[in-house]
Give the backbone structure.
Amino acid sequence: MFNHLIYEIKGGICTITLNRPEVYNALNPVLIQEIIKAFMQAGNDASVRVVVLTGMGDKAFCSGADLKNGMSNTTSLGDSLRIGYNPMILSIRNLAKPVICRLNGIAAGAGCSLALACDVIIASETARMSQIFVSIGLIIDAGSSYFLPRLLGSQKAFELASTGRMVEAKECLDLGLVSKVVPANELDFVVTQTAKMYAKSATQAIGLIKKVLNQSYHSTLEQMLELEAINQDIAGKTNDFVEGVSAFLGKKLPEFKGF
């Protein structure tokens, strides 16, 4: 079904693995469309409660755009963003389920943007991130102009974007670019435990949380209060809400089903 990624589901956890290790999982048009398709498929599958996005191998999560794929100054890079990269980022941000990035290695350029689009980033201590675009005379794209200032503030965002320097895992954690940094040999265990936690959680509530947080970036307090009211109404009609209240009153752990 997929040529450049591996799509697996186990215990409510959907793992999407970029599978071009020979080019450090670089993004070409085929892989980009497959990522979009994979997230759409995960969104439509009720058995999927959480998605883990990672890269094949231990060197790179994703090295960004595949520059050997015919890019030149005669190519409409704007069109390539509109057709591929932008829908890819939106497929992650609009997914009504949590997305964990298993950051197993370098995330550079659009690969860094791809990681930042996820809800949680768990990084190996050997992972690194770079907004490398400027080194080939380009601006940051694939959503990094949106994510970076919100995570770092405008001055630090400008510094990373305008230098393209490589940021080591510890600094990524200190800056707030990633959620957690763990030893390389513990990465799989920590990611799996986190994914299992989300797979047993109230999936619809998490999807609604993600929705309102996305909206908060460009809304007033009054607008957010109303959005909370609208979406709390939706959450309050789920079976998971009934289960959560029942478990709380019964002083036991809830058994959420995700609907």
